[in-house]
What we know:
By secondary structure, the protein is mainly α. It folds into 2 domains: 1-57, no CATH class; 59-96. Helices cover 62% and strands 0% of the residues. The chain contains 5 helices and no strands. The chain is globular. The mean pLDDT is 84.
Amino acid sequence: MYIARRIINYKTIRYSSIQYTMFTLIKEIRDLDLKDLATLLKNRIEDIEEDFKGILNFKLHSQNKKKIYNLLARMTYFIKNKSNLLPTLKIIYLGK
Length: 96
């Protein structure tokens, strides 16, 4: 969710840009039970600065092409998995 929102809003997803956020989140979720984990993640998603409104102005270009391809492969896998058409991510990603 975090990375998808950043991509759509033309924000960088470089390691140096998201490292603090991810490491902080990892420390917060350690040793939580399932209910507390779900609550924490829900709250953190609601707190993400970027939203999906950027999709209205989003365009594919040479700098985001690989990121979008990867994001679409993951979304396709999720949808096909939920519809019992179980492809592998490798097949979707490589287009074979």
